[in-house]
Backbone:
């Protein structure tokens, strides 16, 4: 059975086709620069030459139409007819309080996703466009929504309610939602597999570190706390996001600098983080290189990033009453031995002991010492595969 997984952004569509339940990747690619005359489609299929097309792509419907066309192409495709697609899984960023798991899409689900645009105005509209385009192009095919927020839906109230007047939660839905849930759920399952233990008996901390960063405390397979909050701005230092700060800074900065609410939002989300402190780049690779060359602000940005992460690791171990494994994933988590080493340094009292050589050389697997009471893993995330798994399960019922 062939499952198509779609991840629609503001100007892009990423896709993968899987043969399920074998979980074999048949094809993958993306359409970038949607809305421009020089949009780019890149496509790779198993055993076929890669394909790159450049041309105008007006909207998400045309992008997904191109994806289906290339999947049917005699030279580059993996389908004989589009009816071979048994289900389409969609990444949806925000499911509010309505969805604690992935779900088959119907009109009621679409209405709910539309209502959550107020929480995720930069993401949900594009996710909706992808769903609506796929429904129009594949009207007989079941569509599934896989929500980034769903994995965190079971957090206890003391973890998700802010200490604000309670009516702000009741009337406006202001609470911690958390994000990156698909990634945290995927690597949690993989960690249990590597440990050879049931997920339901484990205490895990999963660190998704990329341009956006979040940490989750996962106890018995359930997210009981996470660093991102009402928006993805809260929590760790990120590429261009500030992460945690004194909320009184917002009106102070607005008053002192004469900024509007939109301008201060832009400052905190797009001008801060690694970029803001280093003054060089939002890319951790550039920051590490500059720090190694002796640039003080790059070193400071690296130190702040790792210190903040270390504090969250310690806090979440305390919240769960102990720890069985620590997981690093995402572009930084998977590739930066420096970040992993600095973040774990001094955590021996928690039972965390890195193997320096394994940390430096391994792309995936256990990087802790054999005698470390807490195992430390690098696990490459695969959100598209989890989307395909959920879609397959719901389609086959």
Residues:
């Amino acid at each position: 059975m062939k499952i198509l997984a779609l991840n629609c952004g503001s100007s892009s569509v990423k896709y993968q086709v899987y043969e399920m339940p074998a979980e074999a990747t048949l094809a993958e690619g993306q359409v970038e620069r949607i809305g421009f005359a020089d949009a780019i489609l890149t496509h790779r299929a198993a055993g076929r030459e890669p394909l790159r097309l450049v041309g105008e792509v007006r909207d998400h419907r045309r992008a997904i139409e191109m994806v289906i066309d290339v999947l049917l192409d005699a030279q580059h495709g993996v389908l004989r007819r589009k009816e071979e697609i048994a289900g389409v899984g969609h990444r949806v960023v925000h499911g509010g309080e309505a969805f604690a798991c992935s779900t088959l899409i119907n009109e009621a689900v679409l209405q709910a996703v539309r209502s959550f645009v107020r929480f995720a105005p930069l993401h949900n509209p594009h996710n909706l466009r992808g769903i609506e385009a796929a429904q129009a192009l594949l009207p007989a095919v079941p569509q599934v929504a896989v929500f980034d927020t769903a994995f965190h839906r079971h957090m206890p109230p003391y973890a998700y309610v802010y200490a604000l007047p309670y009516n702000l939660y009741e009337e406006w839905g202001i609470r911690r939602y958390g994000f990156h849930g698909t990634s945290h759920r995927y690597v949690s399952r993989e960690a249990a597999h590597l440990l050879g233990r049931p997920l339901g008996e484990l205490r895990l901390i999963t660190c998704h570190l990329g341009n956006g960063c979040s940490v989750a405390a996962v106890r018995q397979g359930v997210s009981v706390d996470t660093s991102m909050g009402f928006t993805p701005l809260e929590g760790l230092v990120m590429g261009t996001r500030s992460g945690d700060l004194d909320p009184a800074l917002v009106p102070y900065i607005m008053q002192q600098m004469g900024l509007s609410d939109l301008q201060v939002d832009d400052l905190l989300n797009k001008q801060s983080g690694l970029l803001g402190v280093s003054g060089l780049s939002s890319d951790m690779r550039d920051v590490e290189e500059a720090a190694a060359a002796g640039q003080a602000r790059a070193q400071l940005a690296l130190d702040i990033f790792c210190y903040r992460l270390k504090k969250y690791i310690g806090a979440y171990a305390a919240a769960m009453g102990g720890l069985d494994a620590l997981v690093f994933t995402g572009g930084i988590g998977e590739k930066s031995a420096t970040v992993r080493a600095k973040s774990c340094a001094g955590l021996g009292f928690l039972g965390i002991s890195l193997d320096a050589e394994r940390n430096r050389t391994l792309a995936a697997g256990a990087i802790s010492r054999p005698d470390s009471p807490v195992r430390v893993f690098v696990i490459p995330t695969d959100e598209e595969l989890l989307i395909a798994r959920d879609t397959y399960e719901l389609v086959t019922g």
